[in-house]
Amino acid sequence: MKTIMIVEDEKSIRDELKTLLETSGYKVILLERFDNTLEDILKSKFDLLLLDINLPKMNGETLLKEFRKQSNIPVIMVTSRVGETDEVLSMSYGADDYITKPYNPTILLLRISNIFKRMEKSTDFLTYDDIKVYQGKGILMKGEEILDLTKNEMIIFSYLLNNRSNIVTRDELMTELWNNEEYINENALTVNISRLRAKLESFGIENAIETRKGLGYKLL
Amino acid sequence: MKFSKYVFDKWLEILFALFGYFIVLMMLFAFKISKEVIIGITVVFLLFFIMIILTGYIKRRRFYTNLINNVDKLDKKYLVLEMLNEPSFYDGKILYQVLYEINKSMNENVKDLEISLNDFKEYVELWIHEIKLPISSLVLMNHNHKTNVDKKYDEQIRRIDDYVDQILYFVRSENAEKDYLIKDTSLKKVINSVAMKNKNDLLERNISFEVELSDIKVLTDSKWLEFIVNQVVSNSMKYTKDNNSIIKISAVETSKQVDLIIYDNGIGIPEKDIKRVFEKTFTGENGRATSKSTGMGLYIVKKLCRKLGHKVRIESKEGEYTKVVISFAKNDFYKIGD
Protein backbone atom coordinates (compact mmCIF):
# COMPACT_ATOMS: atom_id res chain seq x y z
CA MET A 1 0.00 0.00 0.00
CA LYS A 2 1.37 3.40 -0.99
CA THR A 3 1.77 6.10 1.61
CA ILE A 4 1.05 9.72 0.82
CA MET A 5 2.08 12.61 3.01
CA ILE A 6 -0.13 15.69 3.09
CA VAL A 7 1.41 19.03 3.99
CA GLU A 8 -1.49 21.46 4.07
CA ASP A 9 -2.23 24.04 6.75
CA GLU A 10 -5.96 24.40 6.11
CA LYS A 11 -7.48 21.84 8.44
CA SER A 12 -10.76 21.22 6.62
CA ILE A 13 -8.98 20.55 3.33
CA ARG A 14 -6.42 18.37 5.07
CA ASP A 15 -9.08 16.20 6.66
CA GLU A 16 -11.13 15.86 3.51
CA LEU A 17 -8.03 15.01 1.50
CA LYS A 18 -7.21 12.31 4.04
CA THR A 19 -10.68 10.79 3.65
CA LEU A 20 -10.44 11.00 -0.13
CA LEU A 21 -7.05 9.30 -0.30
CA GLU A 22 -7.89 6.67 2.30
CA THR A 23 -11.06 5.62 0.52
CA SER A 24 -8.99 5.32 -2.63
CA GLY A 25 -6.68 2.85 -0.93
CA TYR A 26 -3.72 4.95 0.15
CA LYS A 27 -2.15 5.28 3.56
CA VAL A 28 -1.99 8.89 4.69
CA ILE A 29 0.38 10.79 6.93
CA LEU A 30 -0.65 14.27 8.02
CA LEU A 31 1.43 17.13 9.26
CA GLU A 32 -0.47 19.14 11.87
CA ARG A 33 2.18 21.55 13.07
CA PHE A 34 4.39 23.68 10.92
CA ASP A 35 7.28 24.69 13.18
CA ASN A 36 9.85 22.38 11.69
CA THR A 37 8.16 21.47 8.46
CA LEU A 38 11.26 20.49 6.52
CA GLU A 39 12.67 18.28 9.28
CA ASP A 40 9.26 16.69 9.85
CA ILE A 41 8.92 15.89 6.17
CA LEU A 42 12.42 14.45 5.92
CA LYS A 43 11.85 12.29 9.01
CA SER A 44 8.68 10.71 7.64
CA LYS A 45 8.50 7.74 5.33
CA PHE A 46 6.18 8.01 2.36
CA ASP A 47 5.94 7.42 -1.38
CA LEU A 48 4.48 10.74 -2.49
CA LEU A 49 4.23 14.22 -1.06
CA LEU A 50 1.27 16.57 -1.52
CA LEU A 51 2.70 19.97 -0.76
CA ASP A 52 0.76 23.21 -0.36
CA ILE A 53 2.54 26.37 -1.47
CA ASN A 54 1.18 28.78 1.12
CA LEU A 55 2.44 27.49 4.42
CA PRO A 56 3.33 29.27 7.64
CA LYS A 57 7.01 30.08 8.18
CA MET A 58 8.55 28.50 5.10
CA ASN A 59 6.66 28.49 1.83
CA GLY A 60 6.13 25.38 -0.22
CA GLU A 61 8.46 26.38 -3.02
CA THR A 62 11.40 26.83 -0.67
CA LEU A 63 10.51 23.61 1.09
CA LEU A 64 10.45 21.80 -2.22
CA LYS A 65 13.85 23.20 -3.16
CA GLU A 66 15.35 22.05 0.14
CA PHE A 67 13.57 18.70 0.03
CA ARG A 68 14.88 18.00 -3.47
CA LYS A 69 18.45 18.34 -2.23
CA GLN A 70 17.93 15.22 -0.15
CA SER A 71 15.19 13.18 -1.76
CA ASN A 72 13.79 12.08 -5.09
CA ILE A 73 10.36 11.08 -3.83
CA PRO A 74 7.66 12.49 -6.15
CA VAL A 75 6.02 15.76 -5.12
CA ILE A 76 2.74 17.24 -6.27
CA MET A 77 2.39 20.96 -5.55
CA VAL A 78 -1.07 22.14 -4.58
CA THR A 79 -1.98 25.79 -4.47
CA SER A 80 -4.81 28.25 -4.61
CA ARG A 81 -2.62 30.86 -6.25
CA VAL A 82 -3.54 31.20 -9.88
CA GLY A 83 -0.47 32.11 -11.82
CA GLU A 84 1.85 30.77 -14.40
CA THR A 85 4.92 32.01 -12.51
CA ASP A 86 4.26 29.82 -9.47
CA GLU A 87 3.81 26.80 -11.67
CA VAL A 88 6.98 27.39 -13.66
CA LEU A 89 8.92 28.02 -10.45
CA SER A 90 7.61 24.85 -8.80
CA MET A 91 8.36 22.72 -11.82
CA SER A 92 11.87 24.14 -12.04
CA TYR A 93 12.45 23.25 -8.40
CA GLY A 94 11.63 19.67 -9.26
CA ALA A 95 7.92 19.19 -8.64
CA ASP A 96 6.40 16.24 -10.49
CA ASP A 97 3.04 17.87 -10.94
CA TYR A 98 1.17 21.05 -10.08
CA ILE A 99 -2.52 21.40 -9.29
CA THR A 100 -4.55 24.52 -8.51
CA LYS A 101 -7.35 24.59 -5.97
CA PRO A 102 -10.18 23.92 -6.22
CA TYR A 103 -9.26 20.73 -8.01
CA ASN A 104 -11.53 17.99 -9.16
CA PRO A 105 -10.89 15.12 -6.69
CA THR A 106 -11.06 12.50 -9.43
CA ILE A 107 -8.40 14.36 -11.37
CA LEU A 108 -6.18 14.59 -8.31
CA LEU A 109 -6.45 10.83 -7.86
CA LEU A 110 -5.69 10.33 -11.54
CA ARG A 111 -2.58 12.47 -11.35
CA ILE A 112 -1.40 10.59 -8.26
CA SER A 113 -1.91 7.18 -9.84
CA ASN A 114 -0.22 8.41 -13.03
CA ILE A 115 2.88 9.32 -11.07
CA PHE A 116 2.96 5.91 -9.40
CA LYS A 117 2.40 4.22 -12.74
CA ARG A 118 5.22 6.19 -14.32
CA MET A 119 7.56 5.08 -11.53
CA GLU A 120 6.70 1.42 -11.77
CA LYS A 121 6.66 1.21 -15.51
CA SER A 122 9.36 -1.26 -16.34
CA THR A 123 7.41 -3.21 -18.93
CA ASP A 124 5.45 -1.71 -21.78
CA PHE A 125 2.46 -3.90 -21.10
CA LEU A 126 -0.01 -4.74 -18.33
CA THR A 127 -1.22 -8.24 -17.65
CA TYR A 128 -4.72 -9.51 -17.24
CA ASP A 129 -4.48 -13.17 -16.17
CA ASP A 130 -2.70 -14.79 -19.13
CA ILE A 131 -3.32 -11.84 -21.42
CA LYS A 132 -0.81 -9.11 -22.18
CA VAL A 133 -2.28 -5.62 -22.59
CA TYR A 134 -0.26 -3.26 -24.81
CA GLN A 135 -1.76 0.18 -24.16
CA GLY A 136 0.42 2.04 -26.62
CA LYS A 137 -0.34 -0.29 -29.49
CA GLY A 138 -4.00 -0.69 -28.47
CA ILE A 139 -3.93 -4.50 -28.52
CA LEU A 140 -4.48 -7.46 -26.21
CA MET A 141 -2.40 -10.59 -26.76
CA LYS A 142 -3.18 -14.11 -25.68
CA GLY A 143 -0.34 -16.27 -26.95
CA GLU A 144 -0.28 -15.52 -30.65
CA GLU A 145 -3.84 -14.25 -30.79
CA ILE A 146 -4.36 -10.52 -31.10
CA LEU A 147 -7.39 -8.40 -30.25
CA ASP A 148 -7.52 -4.81 -31.51
CA LEU A 149 -9.18 -2.21 -29.31
CA THR A 150 -10.07 1.35 -30.24
CA LYS A 151 -8.50 4.18 -28.23
CA ASN A 152 -11.61 4.63 -26.10
CA GLU A 153 -12.00 0.92 -25.44
CA MET A 154 -8.36 0.69 -24.43
CA ILE A 155 -8.68 3.63 -22.03
CA ILE A 156 -11.72 2.01 -20.41
CA PHE A 157 -10.14 -1.43 -20.26
CA SER A 158 -6.83 -0.21 -18.78
CA TYR A 159 -8.62 1.85 -16.19
CA LEU A 160 -10.75 -1.13 -15.13
CA LEU A 161 -7.63 -3.29 -15.09
CA ASN A 162 -5.67 -0.86 -12.92
CA ASN A 163 -8.55 -0.85 -10.45
CA ARG A 164 -9.31 -4.50 -10.85
CA SER A 165 -10.62 -5.38 -7.43
CA ASN A 166 -12.64 -2.18 -7.05
CA ILE A 167 -15.87 -0.88 -8.42
CA VAL A 168 -15.24 1.85 -10.96
CA THR A 169 -17.94 4.50 -11.33
CA ARG A 170 -19.11 5.84 -14.66
CA ASP A 171 -17.93 9.26 -13.53
CA GLU A 172 -14.40 7.94 -13.02
CA LEU A 173 -14.39 6.37 -16.49
CA MET A 174 -15.73 9.57 -17.94
CA THR A 175 -13.04 11.61 -16.18
CA GLU A 176 -10.34 9.26 -17.46
CA LEU A 177 -11.66 9.50 -21.01
CA TRP A 178 -12.00 13.29 -20.96
CA ASN A 179 -8.59 13.57 -19.39
CA ASN A 180 -7.29 11.70 -22.44
CA GLU A 181 -9.01 14.20 -24.71
CA GLU A 182 -11.86 11.88 -25.65
CA TYR A 183 -14.83 14.15 -25.04
CA ILE A 184 -17.59 11.57 -25.36
CA ASN A 185 -21.09 11.68 -23.88
CA GLU A 186 -23.00 9.24 -21.64
CA ASN A 187 -24.53 7.32 -24.57
CA ALA A 188 -21.18 6.88 -26.24
CA LEU A 189 -19.74 5.51 -22.99
CA THR A 190 -22.49 2.93 -22.78
CA VAL A 191 -21.93 1.98 -26.42
CA ASN A 192 -18.18 1.73 -25.88
CA ILE A 193 -18.59 -0.53 -22.88
CA SER A 194 -20.97 -2.90 -24.64
CA ARG A 195 -18.67 -2.98 -27.67
CA LEU A 196 -15.73 -3.73 -25.39
CA ARG A 197 -17.73 -6.54 -23.78
CA ALA A 198 -18.57 -8.03 -27.15
CA LYS A 199 -14.94 -7.87 -28.26
CA LEU A 200 -13.71 -9.50 -25.06
CA GLU A 201 -16.34 -12.19 -25.47
CA SER A 202 -15.19 -12.91 -29.01
CA PHE A 203 -11.69 -13.21 -27.59
CA GLY A 204 -12.87 -15.87 -25.18
CA ILE A 205 -13.18 -13.70 -22.08
CA GLU A 206 -16.77 -14.00 -21.03
CA ASN A 207 -18.60 -11.80 -18.54
CA ALA A 208 -15.41 -10.03 -17.63
CA ILE A 209 -17.04 -6.67 -16.95
CA GLU A 210 -19.70 -6.80 -14.33
CA THR A 211 -22.30 -4.06 -13.99
CA ARG A 212 -23.16 -2.99 -10.47
CA LYS A 213 -26.46 -1.19 -10.72
CA GLY A 214 -26.26 2.41 -9.63
CA LEU A 215 -22.59 2.06 -8.71
CA GLY A 216 -20.52 1.31 -11.76
CA TYR A 217 -18.45 -1.47 -13.25
CA LYS A 218 -16.02 -4.05 -12.02
CA LEU A 219 -13.49 -6.09 -13.95
CA LEU A 220 -13.53 -9.69 -12.73
CA MET B 1 3.36 85.13 -27.96
CA LYS B 2 2.21 88.09 -29.98
CA PHE B 3 4.10 91.37 -29.84
CA SER B 4 1.00 93.53 -30.44
CA LYS B 5 -0.79 91.90 -27.51
CA TYR B 6 2.26 92.30 -25.32
CA VAL B 7 2.47 96.01 -26.18
CA PHE B 8 -1.24 96.40 -25.62
CA ASP B 9 -0.77 94.73 -22.23
CA LYS B 10 1.82 97.43 -21.36
CA TRP B 11 -0.63 100.32 -21.90
CA LEU B 12 -0.15 101.66 -18.37
CA GLU B 13 3.66 101.83 -18.70
CA ILE B 14 3.29 103.47 -22.11
CA LEU B 15 0.83 105.98 -20.69
CA PHE B 16 3.22 106.89 -17.86
CA ALA B 17 6.14 107.20 -20.27
CA LEU B 18 4.11 109.50 -22.54
CA PHE B 19 3.04 111.52 -19.54
CA GLY B 20 6.70 111.79 -18.34
CA TYR B 21 7.84 112.75 -21.83
CA PHE B 22 5.11 115.38 -22.03
CA ILE B 23 6.26 116.95 -18.68
CA VAL B 24 9.92 116.94 -19.82
CA LEU B 25 8.84 118.51 -23.11
CA MET B 26 6.94 121.22 -21.25
CA MET B 27 10.00 121.89 -19.09
CA LEU B 28 12.30 122.03 -22.12
CA PHE B 29 9.94 124.53 -23.77
CA ALA B 30 9.77 126.58 -20.55
CA PHE B 31 13.59 126.89 -20.47
CA LYS B 32 13.55 127.84 -24.17
CA ILE B 33 15.92 125.05 -25.14
CA SER B 34 16.72 124.91 -28.82
CA LYS B 35 14.71 122.65 -31.17
CA GLU B 36 17.73 120.48 -32.07
CA VAL B 37 18.33 119.50 -28.45
CA ILE B 38 14.63 118.73 -27.95
CA ILE B 39 14.64 116.47 -31.02
CA GLY B 40 17.83 114.80 -29.78
CA ILE B 41 16.37 114.14 -26.33
CA THR B 42 13.15 112.83 -27.91
CA VAL B 43 15.05 110.40 -30.11
CA VAL B 44 17.17 109.11 -27.22
CA PHE B 45 14.10 108.85 -24.98
CA LEU B 46 12.15 106.96 -27.67
CA LEU B 47 15.04 104.61 -28.37
CA PHE B 48 15.52 103.63 -24.74
CA PHE B 49 11.79 103.24 -24.25
CA ILE B 50 11.51 100.85 -27.22
CA MET B 51 14.53 98.92 -25.92
CA ILE B 52 12.93 98.48 -22.50
CA ILE B 53 9.72 97.17 -24.06
CA LEU B 54 11.64 94.92 -26.47
CA THR B 55 14.00 93.29 -23.96
CA GLY B 56 11.01 92.54 -21.68
CA TYR B 57 9.21 91.03 -24.63
CA ILE B 58 12.13 88.93 -25.87
CA LYS B 59 12.86 87.45 -22.44
CA ARG B 60 9.25 86.41 -21.96
CA ARG B 61 8.78 85.26 -25.50
CA ARG B 62 11.53 82.69 -25.18
CA PHE B 63 10.07 81.22 -21.99
CA TYR B 64 6.40 81.29 -22.94
CA THR B 65 6.82 80.03 -26.50
CA ASN B 66 8.77 77.13 -25.07
CA LEU B 67 6.04 76.48 -22.51
CA ILE B 68 3.20 76.61 -25.02
CA ASN B 69 4.97 74.49 -27.63
CA ASN B 70 5.93 71.84 -25.11
CA VAL B 71 2.43 71.63 -23.67
CA ASP B 72 1.14 71.18 -27.22
CA LYS B 73 3.65 68.50 -28.10
CA LEU B 74 3.66 66.50 -24.91
CA ASP B 75 1.47 63.48 -24.53
CA LYS B 76 1.65 63.74 -20.76
CA LYS B 77 1.27 67.50 -20.31
CA TYR B 78 2.04 67.45 -16.61
CA LEU B 79 5.66 66.66 -17.46
CA VAL B 80 6.15 70.07 -19.09
CA LEU B 81 8.33 71.42 -16.28
CA GLU B 82 10.93 68.80 -17.06
CA MET B 83 11.38 70.43 -20.47
CA LEU B 84 11.84 74.01 -19.24
CA ASN B 85 14.65 75.99 -17.64
CA GLU B 86 13.80 78.38 -14.87
CA PRO B 87 13.33 81.83 -16.48
CA SER B 88 15.50 84.83 -15.58
CA PHE B 89 12.70 87.36 -14.97
CA TYR B 90 10.82 87.68 -11.72
CA ASP B 91 7.19 86.97 -12.69
CA GLY B 92 8.41 83.96 -14.69
CA LYS B 93 10.24 82.66 -11.62
CA ILE B 94 7.03 82.92 -9.62
CA LEU B 95 5.07 81.02 -12.26
CA TYR B 96 7.78 78.39 -12.47
CA GLN B 97 7.81 77.88 -8.70
CA VAL B 98 4.02 77.68 -8.52
CA LEU B 99 3.88 75.16 -11.34
CA TYR B 100 6.51 73.13 -9.53
CA GLU B 101 4.49 73.12 -6.32
CA ILE B 102 1.28 72.20 -8.14
CA ASN B 103 3.07 69.38 -9.90
CA LYS B 104 4.47 68.06 -6.67
CA SER B 105 1.17 68.03 -4.91
CA MET B 106 -0.53 66.34 -7.88
CA ASN B 107 2.22 63.73 -7.97
CA GLU B 108 1.68 62.99 -4.31
CA ASN B 109 -2.03 62.68 -4.94
CA VAL B 110 -1.54 60.28 -7.83
CA LYS B 111 0.98 58.32 -5.80
CA ASP B 112 -1.53 57.97 -2.95
CA LEU B 113 -4.15 56.71 -5.36
CA GLU B 114 -1.66 54.33 -6.91
CA ILE B 115 -0.74 52.95 -3.52
CA SER B 116 -4.34 52.48 -2.50
CA LEU B 117 -5.15 50.86 -5.85
CA ASN B 118 -2.23 48.52 -5.44
CA ASP B 119 -3.26 47.73 -1.88
CA PHE B 120 -6.70 46.94 -3.18
CA LYS B 121 -5.33 44.75 -5.94
CA GLU B 122 -3.12 42.89 -3.49
CA TYR B 123 -6.04 42.45 -1.16
CA VAL B 124 -8.21 41.06 -3.95
CA GLU B 125 -5.49 38.56 -4.90
CA LEU B 126 -5.13 37.57 -1.26
CA TRP B 127 -8.87 37.35 -0.82
CA ILE B 128 -9.20 35.13 -3.85
CA HIS B 129 -6.49 32.92 -2.47
CA GLU B 130 -8.45 32.70 0.79
CA ILE B 131 -11.85 32.09 -0.76
CA LYS B 132 -10.42 29.26 -2.83
CA LEU B 133 -9.73 27.33 0.38
CA PRO B 134 -13.37 26.94 1.47
CA ILE B 135 -14.31 26.29 -2.15
CA SER B 136 -11.73 23.48 -2.28
CA SER B 137 -13.03 22.10 1.00
CA LEU B 138 -16.55 22.10 -0.38
CA VAL B 139 -15.49 20.26 -3.53
CA LEU B 140 -13.71 17.61 -1.47
CA MET B 141 -16.52 17.27 1.06
CA ASN B 142 -19.01 16.94 -1.70
CA HIS B 143 -16.92 14.19 -3.25
CA ASN B 144 -16.31 12.36 0.02
CA HIS B 145 -19.84 12.43 1.34
CA LYS B 146 -21.82 11.44 -1.67
CA THR B 147 -25.45 12.40 -1.75
CA ASN B 148 -27.83 12.16 -4.64
CA VAL B 149 -27.61 15.85 -5.38
CA ASP B 150 -23.83 16.14 -5.40
CA LYS B 151 -23.63 16.89 -9.12
CA LYS B 152 -25.87 19.88 -8.58
CA TYR B 153 -23.68 21.03 -5.72
CA ASP B 154 -20.64 20.61 -7.93
CA GLU B 155 -22.22 22.75 -10.61
CA GLN B 156 -22.99 25.55 -8.17
CA ILE B 157 -19.51 25.39 -6.66
CA ARG B 158 -18.04 25.59 -10.14
CA ARG B 159 -20.14 28.70 -10.81
CA ILE B 160 -18.82 30.33 -7.64
CA ASP B 161 -15.30 29.46 -8.69
CA ASP B 162 -15.86 30.92 -12.16
CA TYR B 163 -17.14 34.20 -10.74
CA VAL B 164 -14.21 34.38 -8.33
CA ASP B 165 -11.81 33.91 -11.24
CA GLN B 166 -13.62 36.65 -13.10
CA ILE B 167 -12.76 39.18 -10.38
CA LEU B 168 -9.18 37.97 -10.29
CA TYR B 169 -8.69 38.42 -14.00
CA PHE B 170 -10.59 41.71 -14.02
CA VAL B 171 -8.13 43.09 -11.49
CA ARG B 172 -5.23 41.66 -13.44
CA SER B 173 -6.47 43.08 -16.72
CA GLU B 174 -6.99 46.56 -15.27
CA ASN B 175 -3.54 46.67 -13.79
CA ALA B 176 -0.62 48.02 -15.72
CA GLU B 177 1.80 45.54 -14.22
CA LYS B 178 2.80 42.48 -16.11
CA ASP B 179 1.88 39.46 -14.10
CA TYR B 180 1.72 37.05 -16.93
CA LEU B 181 4.32 34.78 -18.40
CA ILE B 182 4.45 34.14 -22.12
CA LYS B 183 5.69 30.75 -23.17
CA ASP B 184 5.08 27.99 -25.67
CA THR B 185 1.69 26.59 -24.74
CA SER B 186 -0.11 23.60 -26.15
CA LEU B 187 -3.64 24.50 -27.23
CA LYS B 188 -4.73 20.92 -26.61
CA LYS B 189 -3.67 21.14 -22.99
CA VAL B 190 -5.50 24.41 -22.40
CA ILE B 191 -8.65 23.10 -24.03
CA ASN B 192 -8.38 19.92 -21.96
CA SER B 193 -8.29 21.94 -18.72
CA VAL B 194 -11.36 23.88 -19.81
CA ALA B 195 -13.11 20.64 -20.80
CA MET B 196 -12.37 19.01 -17.46
CA LYS B 197 -13.66 22.05 -15.63
CA ASN B 198 -16.96 21.99 -17.47
CA LYS B 199 -17.27 18.23 -17.93
CA ASN B 200 -20.15 17.61 -15.56
CA ASP B 201 -22.13 20.56 -16.82
CA LEU B 202 -21.63 19.60 -20.45
CA LEU B 203 -22.59 15.98 -19.84
CA GLU B 204 -25.55 16.87 -17.64
CA ARG B 205 -26.97 19.20 -20.25
CA ASN B 206 -26.11 16.90 -23.13
CA ILE B 207 -24.04 19.44 -24.98
CA SER B 208 -21.64 17.68 -27.28
CA PHE B 209 -18.10 18.95 -26.99
CA GLU B 210 -16.06 18.43 -30.12
CA VAL B 211 -12.39 19.20 -30.34
CA GLU B 212 -10.41 19.04 -33.57
CA LEU B 213 -6.91 20.14 -32.78
CA SER B 214 -3.57 18.96 -33.95
CA ASP B 215 -0.52 19.54 -31.78
CA ILE B 216 -0.42 23.30 -32.16
CA LYS B 217 1.61 25.47 -29.82
CA VAL B 218 1.07 29.17 -29.33
CA LEU B 219 2.89 31.84 -27.39
CA THR B 220 0.70 32.85 -24.49
CA ASP B 221 0.18 32.62 -20.74
CA SER B 222 -1.57 29.29 -20.30
CA LYS B 223 -3.52 30.34 -17.19
CA TRP B 224 -4.81 33.50 -18.84
CA LEU B 225 -5.73 31.65 -22.01
CA GLU B 226 -7.51 29.02 -19.95
CA PHE B 227 -9.58 31.76 -18.35
CA ILE B 228 -10.31 33.34 -21.75
CA VAL B 229 -11.42 30.08 -23.35
CA ASN B 230 -13.42 29.17 -20.26
CA GLN B 231 -15.31 32.47 -20.47
CA VAL B 232 -16.15 31.91 -24.12
CA VAL B 233 -17.19 28.29 -23.53
CA SER B 234 -19.31 29.37 -20.53
CA ASN B 235 -21.11 31.80 -22.79
CA SER B 236 -21.69 29.06 -25.36
CA MET B 237 -23.13 26.88 -22.62
CA LYS B 238 -25.31 29.70 -21.35
CA TYR B 239 -26.91 30.56 -24.67
CA THR B 240 -27.79 27.16 -26.11
CA LYS B 241 -30.89 26.23 -28.01
CA ASP B 242 -33.00 23.49 -26.49
CA ASN B 243 -31.48 20.41 -28.09
CA ASN B 244 -28.64 19.09 -30.23
CA SER B 245 -26.30 21.65 -28.77
CA ILE B 246 -22.75 21.54 -30.04
CA ILE B 247 -19.61 23.36 -28.98
CA LYS B 248 -16.82 22.84 -31.44
CA ILE B 249 -13.24 23.89 -30.96
CA SER B 250 -10.75 23.90 -33.78
CA ALA B 251 -7.67 25.74 -34.94
CA VAL B 252 -6.31 27.00 -38.23
CA GLU B 253 -2.60 27.53 -38.62
CA THR B 254 -1.10 29.78 -41.29
CA SER B 255 2.45 31.00 -41.69
CA LYS B 256 1.67 34.22 -39.85
CA GLN B 257 -0.79 33.23 -37.15
CA VAL B 258 -2.86 30.60 -35.41
CA ASP B 259 -6.63 31.05 -35.13
CA LEU B 260 -8.40 29.26 -32.32
CA ILE B 261 -12.07 28.94 -33.23
CA ILE B 262 -14.77 28.31 -30.66
CA TYR B 263 -18.04 27.64 -32.41
CA ASP B 264 -21.48 26.92 -30.99
CA ASN B 265 -24.86 26.35 -32.60
CA GLY B 266 -26.67 28.34 -29.92
CA ILE B 267 -29.11 31.21 -30.10
CA GLY B 268 -26.57 33.60 -31.62
CA ILE B 269 -26.34 37.35 -31.16
CA PRO B 270 -28.68 39.95 -32.76
CA GLU B 271 -26.96 42.01 -35.41
CA LYS B 272 -27.49 45.28 -33.59
CA ASP B 273 -25.75 43.90 -30.50
CA ILE B 274 -22.74 42.21 -32.04
CA LYS B 275 -20.58 45.32 -32.31
CA ARG B 276 -20.97 46.04 -28.64
CA VAL B 277 -20.45 42.62 -27.01
CA PHE B 278 -16.92 43.47 -25.91
CA GLU B 279 -18.03 46.67 -24.15
CA LYS B 280 -17.98 46.87 -20.38
CA THR B 281 -21.29 45.88 -18.74
CA PHE B 282 -23.02 45.51 -22.10
CA THR B 283 -25.58 42.74 -21.83
CA GLY B 284 -27.67 43.10 -24.97
CA GLU B 285 -30.93 41.35 -25.75
CA ASN B 286 -29.70 37.86 -24.85
CA GLY B 287 -28.25 38.92 -21.53
CA ARG B 288 -31.41 40.72 -20.54
CA ALA B 289 -33.52 37.73 -21.58
CA THR B 290 -31.69 35.29 -19.33
CA SER B 291 -30.77 37.89 -16.69
CA LYS B 292 -27.69 35.84 -15.87
CA SER B 293 -25.32 38.20 -17.56
CA THR B 294 -23.03 40.77 -15.97
CA GLY B 295 -21.61 41.97 -19.27
CA MET B 296 -18.13 41.64 -17.86
CA GLY B 297 -16.98 38.30 -19.28
CA LEU B 298 -16.22 39.29 -22.85
CA TYR B 299 -14.96 42.71 -21.76
CA ILE B 300 -12.31 41.02 -19.62
CA VAL B 301 -11.57 38.58 -22.43
CA LYS B 302 -10.89 41.46 -24.81
CA LYS B 303 -8.67 43.26 -22.31
CA LEU B 304 -6.65 40.15 -21.51
CA CYS B 305 -6.24 39.40 -25.21
CA ARG B 306 -5.02 42.91 -25.85
CA LYS B 307 -2.46 42.60 -23.06
CA LEU B 308 -1.20 39.28 -24.35
CA GLY B 309 -1.12 40.61 -27.90
CA HIS B 310 -3.84 38.31 -29.25
CA LYS B 311 -6.75 39.42 -31.38
CA VAL B 312 -10.27 38.36 -30.62
CA ARG B 313 -13.33 38.70 -32.82
CA ILE B 314 -16.83 37.38 -32.86
CA GLU B 315 -19.15 36.36 -35.67
CA SER B 316 -22.73 35.34 -35.28
CA LYS B 317 -26.06 34.81 -36.96
CA GLU B 318 -29.07 35.15 -34.74
CA GLY B 319 -30.76 31.80 -34.16
CA GLU B 320 -27.95 29.87 -35.84
CA TYR B 321 -24.47 30.14 -34.47
CA THR B 322 -21.80 32.12 -32.65
CA LYS B 323 -18.15 31.89 -33.49
CA VAL B 324 -15.35 33.40 -31.43
CA VAL B 325 -11.92 33.52 -33.02
CA ILE B 326 -8.77 34.16 -31.03
CA SER B 327 -5.71 34.89 -33.16
CA PHE B 328 -2.19 34.31 -31.96
CA ALA B 329 0.57 35.96 -33.92
CA LYS B 330 3.63 33.89 -34.62
CA ASN B 331 6.54 35.87 -33.36
CA ASP B 332 10.04 34.52 -33.05
CA PHE B 333 10.88 37.48 -30.87
CA TYR B 334 9.51 35.70 -27.82
CA LYS B 335 11.28 32.45 -28.47
CA ILE B 336 14.27 32.34 -26.24
CA GLY B 337 16.92 29.77 -26.88
CA ASP B 338 14.54 27.20 -28.20
- CATH class designation of the largest domain in chain B: Alpha Beta
Oligomer: heterodimer
CATH fold description of the largest domain in chain B: Heat Shock Protein 90
CATH homologous superfamily grouping of the largest domain in chain A: Response regulator
Q: What's the total helix number of chain B? A: 10
Give the chain pair forming the largest contact, with residue counts: A-B, 32 and 40 residues
CATH architecture assignment of the largest domain in chain B: 2-Layer Sandwich
Q: Report the sheet-strand fraction of chain A.
A: 15-25%
Give the uncertain stretches of chain A in residue-range form.
none
- Give unreliable regions of chain B as ranges: none
Instruction: Tell me the radius of gyration of chain B.
Output: 35 Å
Distance between the termini of chain B: 59 Å
| H-E order of chain A | EHEHEHEHEHEEEEHHHEE
**How many domains would you count in the coordinates of chain A?**
2
Q: Kindly state the percentage of residues in helix of chain B.
A: 55-70%
- Give me the count of strands of chain A: 11
Secondary structure class of chain B reads alpha+beta
Question: What keywords describe this structure?
Answer:
heterodimer, A: 220 residues, alpha/beta, Rossmann fold, Arc Repressor Mutant, subunit A, five-stranded parallel sheet, 11 strands, 21% strand, elongated, B: 338 residues, alpha+beta, Heat Shock Protein 90, five-stranded mixed sheet, two-stranded antiparallel ribbon, 10 helices, 7 strands, 60% helix, 13% strand
